[in-house]
Every structure is written in C-alpha cells, then in structure tokens.
Design brief:
about 850 residues, alpha+beta, 7-stranded parallel β-sheet, 18 helices, 40 strands, about 25% helix
Length: about 850
C-alpha cells in the first residue's frame, strides 16, 4: 500500500468542443462505428465495469453500442479498437510511443493514447488495475463531453458525429483520497464516473473499491469505559481524581498503549479491505491532568505532543500485524498545533481538521486569528510530514438546508492544500440526508477539483449552471452571486455552527432571492430537471426565511405564544412538504430527543404554562418545551431575570431560561422532551421519559415567603442495561458580560472571586467559558452579581452531588449562564443521578 501514496496531477487534454474535424478521430458517425472495445485478458472487475459503462454511455449518446471482445477473439486483432486494460495487445500498441512507467501509475494512474494503425486509429486506455484503467475510461468520456452533474441523469455530448482529438496523456488524481461527504455524492455510479474514491459512496469491487478512514474519536472504542471499574488508572485524572464517561485517556500509561494496540489489531483483522484506521481523541477537552501527561504537553508546547507520541507507540505495535495499513489521528481543536519534537511514524497519517476557521474567505487571506493560525499550522505540518489528509467542513451543521456561501473559500483552499503536500481531503457536508439547495453543485465542483485543483472553479460553477438550469441560467447565477456577496467583505465572516441571522440574510436579500428564483422557474417551463433544482434552491431560502420570521415567544394571558411572528402553522406545513419533496430527513447534525422539525413547529404554536408563585417570585414553566422555566419574575418590580433565546438559536423555543439535560452537546437528552406536570400548591412535580431508557424527574418548590427556588432534579435509568451519563442543570440570566461578577462560597462560608480550573474563549462564538472543579469547585454555592438592574442570583447545592460548575458569558448576547453538573458515571438499571439545589434572588 505504501507504494501507491503518489499524487498525480492530470495532464489536461483537448475537449471535444475544440476538436479540429480534419484531425479528429471519428468514433461514431451516421449511426455506425467501426470500433470494438477490447478488454484485457484477466481484466479486473473495475476494468470489466468500465468497458460496459463505456459501451453504455456511447450507446446512450448515439444509439450505437460497440461490441466488447477479449484479446483472444479475432475481431480484437485488427484496428480500429478501444483497448481497456493493460493486456498484451494494448502494451504492444503502446510500445510504439513513449515508454510507460507502470509502477509510477500505481492504483489510480493511467495512460490514454491514440495510436495510428494505417488508415485507422486505435485508442489505448490502460493503467492501475484497481481504479486506474477505469478512471482512464471516464477521462475519455469526459474528453468526449459526457457529464454527470447530478446523480439523476447523464448529460450527453450534443453532436451528430462523436469525435476525439488525437490524445497522448498520462493522468491521475491530484489527491490519493477524495471524498465529498455529501448525500448527493453517495450514489456509486455518480461517484465513480466523477472519479471519486470515497468510502461513503460504498463503491463495490466492480467500481474499484473505496478509500476511507475507519472511525473518528475512537478512544472510547479502543479503550472502552467498561474498563474503568477495574482500571481507573487508564482514565484521566481531572480535579484530583480519575473520572470516566466521555473523556480522554491517560496516554502516558503504558497499559493504555497496549490495550489500544490490541483493540486496533482486532479491528483491522475484521476489516481487511480498510486502508486507514483512526486512533484519535474524543470530541471533548476533558484531558488528563496527571503529572506525566501534563509534563509531556508542556514540553511539546502543544497537547499534540502527548497524543501523537501515544499514537506512534500504538502504530509501532500494530505495524508487524498489518504492514499494509495506516493509522490516522486527528490534528483537531486542541491538537491542531504541531508538537515541538514528536514526529509521526511512517505508517501514521495526520488528519488536520480546521473546524474553527472562517469559511467565507480562503484561510490564507482571512483576518480572523483561527484562520491565520491554521495557515501556519498547515505549513508547519507540511514541513514535518508528507502524510497529511484534511477534514474540511462545508455546511452549517445546525442548519443543513440553509444557503452556505463558501465556494470562494473551499475552491481556493484546495489549491493551498495541494501545494502543502496534502494527500487526501474529506469535504464534510450535509451527509445524513439530501442537503442544501446547492448540494449537487457543491458535490460536482468538489469532485472535479479533487481530481485537479488547478481548474477555474468559477468556470466549473458556470458550466454546471448552464447545463442544469438551461434557460434559467441567468437568474440562478445572479442568485448564487447575491448569496456569496453577503460574505465577500473582509470582515463578513462565516462559520459552520452559526445560526442564520438578518446580518447574513437581510430581508431585502431574501426578497431578491425569491424574485430571482421565481424568474428562473418561469424561464424553465418544460424543463423538468431545471425546475427540480430551482425548487431545491428555493427550499434553502424558504428554510432561512421561516427561521428568521417566526418572532419571539412570550407569556401572554397565561400561555407561551409567538409574538411578532409572520409565520403560521400553515407555513410550517408547507415547509415540511418542501423538505419531503426533496427527501430531506435531517436538517441538523445531532438529534436524540431534540427534533428540529418539532421545534420549528413549536415556534408558531401556543404552549401551556404552569404558573408557580409565592409572595416574592413568579415562575412560568412550560412542560411541553422540556419543562423550561421561561420566566423568573420578581413580583415587587416585575423584572424577569431569565434570558430567553430568540429565533436565531438552533434549539428555539426550547432553549433559554432554565433547563436540564444529560449534557448540552452530542447525544444530549431531556432539555427538549415533553414533561407531565402536577401542581400541588407551591410545588410542581415534573416527569418525562427520554430515549435510551432514561426518566427525568424534577420537583420545583417555592417557600411561602422569600425569593428562593428549591429544585430536586434526577435522572433514573429505567432500562435493563447500565447507562453512562451525567445530569446538567442550567440557568440563563440577563447580564452584561462586562459587569457581571462571579463569586464562590469558601469553606468558611464567605464568598470570594474563584480561581477557574479553565477559562477560555469559545472556539466558535464570542463567549467566555469558565470551569470550576477539583480544588477550585465552590464549597456548596456560588453566585453572580451585577446582573440586570443590580440583581444577584445565588446557586446552592449538595457538594457531593455536583462535580463542577460552569459559567459562560456572552460578549454580545446580553446573558450569562450558570450551570452545575454531576459527575459522568455508569448508572445501573434502577439507579439514579440526583442533584438537590437552590436558587436565591436578591438585590
């Protein structure tokens, strides 16, 4: 396998449209062809498939199907012939020209050559038996004008006579691994015809198989949490104790190396066709704080020093068992920066993941620090190793259908990647279901550039639009330019987790988008293909318009209902019809019980409110929306202390106020469930059954007097198997981040400004996050002062039930979040995690 890691750049050939008739090779004319397709003896499955698809494609364009013969048949002995595969006859014909370096062609390279044979001309397509010959066939079809712009049809060359210019080229891909991870690119025929070797397309043996990376965030797979009870030393030391759950591992423990290597060997044994296998960090910053791990990270001036050293040790153990396979690891988030001295082994690939960069501008030109840093890291990694693959992000992961104007970024970054020696790219887009309105265009442009990144990307966009939109090209091109103009300015940044906003999609831009799409639809009368893709593009704008026009929900006349919304339940129903028409089944990356389709409807619905009050406070609880507390009101002043998010938030209207869940990220449950509510005086009992055999129970109580809220929160494992989770209780408060002050209770009962275990700016948003745990955990209580209008909110809790406290302050959103979390642990059937806590309001 090592010998095929060669990046070959295609040599450009003359297109069919530019052929001079006097010099051209006539393949089909007047409904006839003198050619036969000669298949090499012992042809590989992909070569056999390529020969059949060549015959099928030529027949589809001209009505003439060329016969397929093998080298031993009489008709294979006289010209004109199209040779498919490096058989004996093909090699003889090639020997008349420049020598072919067959070893250099590897698995994916090919030679495409026309060879004179008296008055006839043979065409030889021969290369790597796995995919090379097959890619040569599709390169020939490309030269003839065949295109597969989408997975719904073939675009045939428009010519009465099928001609080819004399050709002599050696070709191959610029990148060894090419994956547009977009649902529209998963069709196996589309993928192979566009010369993509992605794992997601499920390419079978007849289509050359696939290249891909098995797994990501694999510590849990290689060193499972089930080992914690017997070997807590395998797990990270955090806050002075070994912890389990979704955490990293203690990577300086030699036994962890051995366990991971044994697991990896077994994994490779089960997947003999695999090429890359991931040994990579979990998607969390809960790193080990033990002395050896900390010293390694500090000495290497990057956590990557610790992580890469661990991966190297695993890869060394694995190599004798599977010398034909590679270990990949992530340079992602906190491991993006290269280490000072540690270098990857020869069988280790670095998978760089620029998750924080702005995707509006090429990262070499963007003014944001994350983009500048990544450009530097890529350059540094390129000096360290030639074993680099890229995980590049190409959609809004919270809003798959929305327009995502990043073509000016990824089409130029791909050139930078190639110039820095990158060997493969995984372009992650909307994969769970058909995605945004430009998903088909995006997939095709990516496929073309993954083969040859030095093409004119804008010309590719134009070509696709002319072919697919036909007469509607002009307004659809204008729409594309309109959307991309929103991020053209140097300070107009775009990121992969942003919610749609009026800054990005002003009302006049949305209106103009609709006007252009309506004009395009009219021009495409009678063109079913064009209208289909115009409608798909319209869906993207409708989706954004719905999200931005649903207004706010407020408690009015005892119910929680939309105020200022221009959308209705009928609009929601129409949006669902549009999504269904394009088979869109997922509109964001993560789900569990927080179904976004439901939340979109909840934006325009009216919801029951349970009011709980005493002489000092009034609470508005909305059982249908995760039993969120939507209002915490001081009855004396009428001030509502809670911050409720707006329609730009992905989880709206569930998000905001006070809520509880198992987490606030991957796989979280609880915060969006429907709760049953039972009110008994000043006490409210709430229950909800969540996915995975979990039950949430919560009791909220107010004393007869006083500004205090007593809450008892629990998650119970009602299933038959142990479950690992934690309980999180959070409250969003109205606050100015510049004024708010956090104070923690000391062991003597007093309060002081605490030392954070960790304080940092959020990697995606203008948020500051602070974690207080271990020796820095408050002694049973903490509070925020200088809230809106001078209020103070104090949170008190059982110190044995709470493992950590988290504070997040928004730099522009006008809120602060207080969050208490239990430890994450395995809970047996019937077991529970409980937190008893109190929230007190004062001025």
């Amino acid at each position: 396998m090592r010998s095929v890691i060669v990046a070959l750049l295609v040599w450009s050939g003359t297109t069919a449209a530019a052929v001079e008739p006097a010099r051209s090779i006539v393949l089909v004319e007047d409904g006839r062809s003198p050619y036969v397709i000669v298949l090499a003896a012992q042809a590989s499955p992909s070569e056999q498939h390529a020969a059949r698809d060549l015959r099928h494609s030529l027949g589809g364009a001209t009505g003439v199907e060329l016969p397929i013969v093998t080298e031993g048949q009489a008709s294979a002995l006289s010209a004109p012939r199209i040779f498919v595969g490096a058989g004996k006859l093909a090699r003889e014909r090639l020997s008349a020209g420049a020598p072919v370096d067959w070893e250099k062609l590897g698995d994916e390279g090919f030679v495409l050559r026309s060879v004179e044979a008296g008055e006839r001309t043979d065409i030889v397509i021969a290369g790597g038996r796995q995919r090379g010959t097959m890619y040569g066939v599709y390169t020939l079809l490309d030269r003839l004008g065949f295109r597969w712009y989408t997975n719904r049809k073939t675009w045939y060359p428009e010519a009465a006579v099928l001609r080819l210019a004399p050709v002599d080229e050696v070709g191959g891909p610029a990148f060894m691994y090419r994956e547009p991870y977009i649902h529209e690119a998963f069709d196996a025929d589309w993928a192979v015809r566009n010369r993509v070797n992605s794992m997601s397309a499920r390419l079978d043996e007849s289509r050359g198989g696939r290249v891909g990376v098995h797994g990501v965030h694999t510590f849990g797979r290689l060193i499972p949490v089930s080992l914690y009870d017997e070997h807590p030393e395998y797990f990270p030391l955090i806050g002075g104790q070994r912890v389990t759950g979704y955490v990293q591992r203690c990577l300086t423990n030699p036994d962890v190396v051995r366990v991971a290597a044994d697991s990896l060997v077994a994994w490779m044994d089960r997947n003999p066709e695999g090429v890359f296998f991931s040994v990579s960090q979990e998607d969390t910053e809960l790193l080990c704080e033990c002395v050896p791990c900390t010293r390694k990270m500090e000495a290497e001036e990057s956590p990557m020093g610790l992580y890469l050293d661990f991966v190297n040790q695993v890869a060394e153990i694995v190599e004798p068992h599977h010398p034909d396979k590679y270990v990949s690891t992530l340079a992602y988030w906190f491991t993006e920066k290269p280490p000072k001295t540690v270098r990857p082994r020869d069988n280790v690939f670095i998978r760089l993941c620029p998750i924080s960069i702005c995707v509006a501008h090429p990262f070499t030109e963007c003014s944001e620090a994350a983009s500048r840093n990544f450009a530097q890291y890529l350059s540094e990694w390129g000096k360290i190793t030639d074993r680099i693959i890229i995980w590049h992000y190409n959609t809004n992961f919270k809003h798959f259908p929305m327009p995502f104007p990043n073509f000016g970024e990824f089409t130029r970054d791909i050139v930078t990647y190639h110039r820095n020696g990158v060997q493969g790219i995984f372009f992650q887009g909307s994969a769970a279901s058909p995605g945004g309105g430009d998903a088909d265009l995006r997939a095709w442009v990516m496929a073309r550039l993954l083969w040859d990144p030095y093409q004119d990307a804008d010309a590719l966009v134009d070509e696709w639009m002319h072919a697919v939109y036909g007469k509607a090209y002009a307004p659809m091109r204008a729409y594309y330019d309109l959307i991309h103009a929103q991020v053209a300015a140097p300070d107009a940044h775009l990121h992969i987790f942003e919610s749609p906003s009026r800054d990005l999609f002003p009302a006049d831009v949305v209106s103009e988008a609709f006007r252009l799409q309506e004009a395009a639809y009219a021009l495409a009368a009678g063109d079913e293909t064009a209208r289909y893709y115009i409608g798909k593009s319209r869906l993207a704008v409708d989706f954004v318009d719905y999200e931005l026009s649903t207004g706010l929900l407020r408690v009015v006349d005892g119910v929680y209902r939309p105020v200022g919304s221009s959308k209705t339940a009928a609009d929601h129903a129409r949006l669902l019809e549009q999504l269904a028409a394009y088979d869109v089944t997922a509109i964001r990356e993560e789900s569990r019980d927080s179904d976004l389709y439901t939340m979109l409807r909840q934006r325009v619905d009216t919801h029951e409110v349970v009011a709980l009050e005493n002489e000092s406070l009034r609470l508005h609880v909305v059982p249908q929306l995760g039993a969120k507390i939507a209002g915490l009101i001081d009855r004396e002043t009428g001030v509502d202390l809670l911050h409720d998010s707006g329609p730009e938030a992905i989880y709206y209207p569930v998000s905001g106020g006070y809520s509880e869940s198992t987490a606030w990220t991957w796989g979280a449950t609880g915060f969006a469930n429907v709760y049953a509510a039972e009110l008994q005086g000043r006490k409210l009992h709430l229950t909800a059954d969540a996915s995975g055999g979990l039950r949430f129970e919560r009791t909220i109580a107010l004393p007869k007097t006083g500004s205090r809220i007593d809450i008892s929160s629990a998650i119970i494992n009602t299933g038959n198997e142990p479950r690992t989770y934690k309980l999180v209780c959070r409250m969003y408060l109205k606050a100015d981040a510049k004024r708010v002050t956090v104070e923690a209770r000391r062991s003597d009962g007093g309060f002081a400004i605490p030392t954070a275990s960790e304080a940092k700016m959020h990697q995606f948003f203008p948020l500051m996050t602070y974690r207080y745990d271990g020796v820095n955990k408050p002694s049973g209580g903490w509070r925020l002062t200088h809230l809106e209008q001078g209020y103070v909110v104090e949170s008190s809790f059982d110190v044995d039930q709470v493992a950590s406290c988290h504070l997040i302050t928004s730099q522009r959103g006008g809120w602060a979040l207080m969050e208490i979390q239990s430890a994450e642990r395995e809970v047996p059937p019937g077991g529970r995690i409980q937190i008893d806590h109190t929230w007190t309001v004062s001025r």
